[in-house]
Amino acid sequence: MKGEAITVSSRLARRAAALGCGAVLLWGAGFPAYGGLFDDEEARKQVAAQGKRIDDANEQLKDLAARVGKFEETLKSQALLDLFTQLEALKQELNRLRGQLEVLNNNVENTSKRQRDMYLDLDTRLRRFELQGGVPPAAPGAAAPVPASPAAASTPSAPAPSVAAPAAGMTNADTGAENRVYEAAQAQRKLGNYQGAIVAFQNFIKQYPKSNLAPRAQYWIGDSYFNLRDFKLAIANQQALLKTYPDSPSVPDALLNIASSQMEMGESVVGRKTLEEVVAKYPVSDAADKARRRLAALSAPAAATANAPSDVNPSAAQASQKQ
Q1: SS (H, E, C) the chain
Q2: Are 295 and 243 in contact (CB under 8 A)?
Q3: Is 90 exceeded by the pLDDT of residue 198?
Q4: Which of 75-89, 152-166, 237-251 is least confident?
Q5: Which of 112, 113, 92, 106 is nearest to 312 (CA)?
Q6: Residue 260, in any domain of the structure
Q7: Containing structural domain, residue 45
Q8: Is residue 151 part of a domain?
Q9: Is the entire prediction scored with pTM above 0.85?
Q10: Residue 257 falls within a domain, yes or no?
């Protein structure tokens, strides 16, 4: 009995020890669990804080996106303004290039006209020399022999008529004086003294109304008035050329100058008709080529030419006339 009691006591002791160890183990394991509970709560708080930060960041992003949208709209408006400014600059550049082209065409025209004037002068001299029969002028007061007619040649005794040589000498002198007067007027025009050129050309026509250079002198009177921007007088003088010298080679140029004057006066419809008249009546002339170019420019879209100045640049024309 005594041994059984010891055995039971030992068993109870062992169980108590085991229970104690379990309690200790349970008690020790309880602390980490308690700490874990605290760690989860902190994590939740941090997650909540992060969520709030994300929401704030989203709000800031939305605000920033709105501001960027407004900025883009402003940039678009500025881009349109810049595009419009560039378009206006291109229009001005196009007008400037047209003016330069007109100056170059004017230079070519002036060169052609000078060559024509020189040719007319040379032709006039040759014809007058041919009319003299190619006989050199005799000494003053002496009689110059004239070729006898066939009847006179068959009758040796018939006296040969003679013509005094001073008349031929006077013709040559008149030709030289005529050319000098014309060149003096041209010199005034080339210097830009258009008023002085007008007076000089008018005096030339009064002195030499039958000269081959008279139509050209009349043209330069109208052109000088154009450069003085007196378009009414320019038209009147060019119309005087058309009436007085209807067969002159200067008629197409006069019509072109009339068209330019009409355009400068704001008579676009009438000016267009005059340009068409130049092309229709004188299709192979230099004036017709220029008229075609001007008609083509007038046919361009109105949006591109609404603010464009006239195709004739008076200052540029004056500069070209001086050359």
Answers
A1: CHHHHHHHHHHHHHHHHHHHHHHHHHHHHHHHHHHHHHHHHHHHHHHHHHHHHHHHHHHHHHHHHHHHHHHHHHHHHHHHHHHHHHHHHHHHHHHHHHHHHHHHHHHHHHHHHHHHHHHHHHHHHHHHHHHCCCCCCCCCCCEEECCCCHHHHHCCCCCCCEEECHHHHHHHHHHHHHHHHHHHHHHHHHCCCHHHHHHHHHHHHHHCCCCCCHHHHHHHHHHHHHHCCCHHHHHHHHHHHHHHCCCCCCHHHHHHHHHHHHHHCCCHHHHHHHHHHHHHHCCCCHHHHHHHHHHHHHCCCHHHHCCCCCCCCHHHHHHHHCC
A2: no
A3: yes
A4: 152-166
A5: 106
A6: yes
A7: 34-83
A8: no
A9: no
A10: yes
Look at residue 10 and tell me if it is in a domain: no
Residues 6+ apart with CB under 8 A from 249: 116, 215
Write the single-letter amino acid at 262.
Q
Structure token pair of residue 218: 């009349």
- 202 and 291 assigned to the same domain: yes
Predicted confidence (pLDDT) per residue in 145-185, tens digit: 444 443 333 333 333 333 333 333 435 556 778 889 999 99
Q: Which amino acid is at 42?
A: E
Kindly state the percentage of the chain with pLDDT values over 70.
Answer: 66
Using the structure block, give the residue that is written with the tokens 């050319």.
Answer: 179
Domain boundary among 83, 113, 147: 83
Q: What tokens were used for 253?
A: 């140029």
User: For 154, how many CA atoms within 13 A lie in the half-sphere containing its CB?
Assistant: 2
Q: What is the CATH number of the domain that holds 247?
A: 1.25.40.10
Least reliable range by pLDDT among 73-77, 122-126, 166-170, 201-205: 166-170
Lowest mean per-residue pLDDT among 24-28, 114-118, 164-168, 192-196: 164-168
pLDDT at 174: 65
